[in-house]
Structures are given as structure tokens and as C-alpha cells.
Amino acid sequence: MSSTSPNDAYERQRQEMVRLHLAGGGIHDVLVLNAMRLVPRHEFVPESARQASYEDRSLPIGEGQTISQPYMVALMLEHLALRRTDRVLEVGTGLGYVTALLSTLCGEIYSVERIPELAAAAQQTLQRLHYLNVKIKTGDGRMGWSEHAPFEAILVSAATPEIPPDLFAQLREGGRMVLPIGPPSEQTLQLVRKIGGRLEVKVFDHCRFVPLIEGPAG
């Protein structure tokens, strides 16, 4: 009879995910790879989806939302080139997986989620797992979190047809924002920098995210 615990199995699957799909797929940032080796993705998905936690694909998390594909998450984090001292705004907390990754990489994380049930569940999980440099609020992600601006980096985990002006305004001079831009059917991942108060945009691969909707929900 095997003495392997579920946590041991998840640990092996997580290491394999990083080795095969992330490092093997071209992610080179050592800090990002290490964060994804450490953060237990299975803790941030519903029980019904846990067996698929370390597959390289998005998964449903309820309320019509998804947790993003691990490779896409790693790619967004790599493009942000995060530093330990960064103050970061996250738009689209979901159940908190990317928030936890940001918590291991950065100094202060401010995350906005439009669906109260997801925000509450994320807060509970993050506290239980001791990701303590995170603040979450329910609100309209397009408006950011001006009380804590400016931010060195902004990560948007939902698609928008254009760069939300309030988010750009909350970006520190020299700061970076990664977000999917385009219609619901397909977007391109874009890196936005604020240089001299102006937009500097670099366009990457095609992607597909749930839309950034006016909120909060309900």
C-alpha cells in the first residue's frame, strides 16, 4: 500500500509543471520559476478541479470565472520584471493564485475583484497560507485603487478593449503594466510602460481571457 500523501503528489506535479511547461516552454526568469515551484495552485481551485491543478490550462473557479493557464501567468509575471520592493496592483483576484505568486515576488500587493464571493474566498485562503503582504477589495477593477497609487507594476487578469485610463494614471513613472487587449473572442498580451508620462506599448502573443467587466457584481 502506498504511503504517498496527496500533498506529496501535488508537490511532484507542481515541480513537473514548472519543468515541462514553464522552463520547458521558454520561461527564463528564475524568480518567477521559483515562485511557481512554491505556490500551491491546488489550494486556489475548487475541490472538483484539484486533480487538474497542475495541468497547463485554465480551470473554472465559479461565478463564470477561470484561473489562468500557468504558462500565461508565468509569461505575464516575466514581462513585468518584478522587484521585491515593488508595490503592485492586481486587477482580477479570482481565488487568489496570482495574488499569492505576487506576494512571494513583491513588497505590497493591492488586488481588486468585482465578485464579492471570490474576493472573500481569496482572502480566506491567502490568510490561511500566510500570504500577509496582500490587501483585497471588492470593486471595479478598471478604476484601480487610487488610495495606494502610484504602483510600480500593474497586472490585469481580464481582457479590455483598450487600456483603462485610470489604471495608466495610477502607474508610477517608469512603471509597467501587463494586460490582454482586444475583444472577448481573442486578445493580444501587451506590456505598457509609462515613459515621460506617455504610453510605450509592446505587443506579444495572442491570448484569451475573460472580459474586464464594470463592477462590482450584484
Explain this structure.
The chain has one domain (6-207): Rossmann fold (3-Layer(aba) Sandwich). It is globular, with a radius of gyration of 16 Å. The strands form two sheets. A seven-stranded mixed sheet has the order 5-4-3-6-7-8-9. The N and C termini lie far apart (49 Å). Helix 6 links the parallel strand 6 and strand 7 (171-181). The model has no long low-confidence stretch (mean pLDDT 94). By secondary structure, the protein is α/β, with parallel strands linked by helices. Helices cover 30% and strands 27% of the residues. Helix 1 packs antiparallel against helix 2 and helix 2 (30-38) crosses helix 4 (97-105).
